Amino acid sequence: MKYNQVISGTFVRKLNRFLADVIINYQIEQVHIKNTGRLKELLVPDAKVLLEVNDNPNRKTKYSIIAVYKNDRLVNIDSLAPNNVVYQAIKHGQIPEIGNILTIKREVLFGNSRFDLYFENNDSSGFIEVKGVTLEHNDIAMFPDAPTYRGTKHIYELIKAQEDGYKGIIFFLIQMQGCKMFTPHLAMDKGFTQALIEAYRKGVSIIVYDAFVTEDQIVIGNKVPFYLPEIEKVD
């Protein structure tokens, strides 16, 4: 996934979930944040950020934060990017865990949820829920960075799909490089962690990849091992 026009700026402060002040060309500009998570460890004063330029006159803001440097590590925070990156990777056969894809569709309804992807391969059909991961501590990637009722609900819907004969997959895309492992953020959202463990025990697959991130692009990277509390299994 490539961005058309990207410039750099210096983060000043977060105004709310959607807006922030950023210094661009020596002036403070109000910009859009392409992620509604907390991002407390990333969006700190004086952090270098990358912004996508949008010249649509109907938009309230001209710039959107898409990435931020955490020390020397570049982290993509665009919440729309993971679905696009994973979709393209599966479509082009870059995720061997999913097999030879015959059909792949986006935003498909099942029960009370709309899953990110529906796929058919030589052996099965199923649903994939994609989660973008931006939180990292000591090279360990974690999700979520804020409590997520919606994310937990999707996991239970995937369990139901699995029980109905579909294949359920939760795909975590770490939106950076250099993480050695992924784990659910138990301290932040115990309910999500418990749901993920239950899903894994009932046959829902967990796939974790990192991403190659540059200032104007994010693409699929390499498989990353994961750890589930209480199960103590690394895959």
Task: Outline the low-pLDDT stretches.
Answer: none
Radius of gyration from the alpha-carbon trace, in angstroms: 18 Å
* Overall 3D form: globular
CATH hierarchy class name of the largest domain: Alpha Beta
Q: Any idea of the CATH topology of the largest domain? A: Trna Endonuclease, Chain: A, domain 1
- Written as H for each helix and E for each strand, in order along the chain, the element string is EEEEEEHEEEEEHEEHEEEE
Tell me how many strands there are: 17
- Strand portion, in percent? over 45%
- How much helix is in the residues? 10-25%
Structural class: alpha+beta
Largest sheet, described in full?
A: 6 strands, mixed
Tell me, rounded to a whole number, the average pLDDT: 92
Within the largest sheet, what's the order of strands? 7-8-9-12-14-15
> Which CATH-level-2 architecture of the largest domain?
3-Layer(aba) Sandwich
Counted by DSSP, the helix tally is: 3
Overall number of structural domains: 2
End-to-end gap: 27 Å
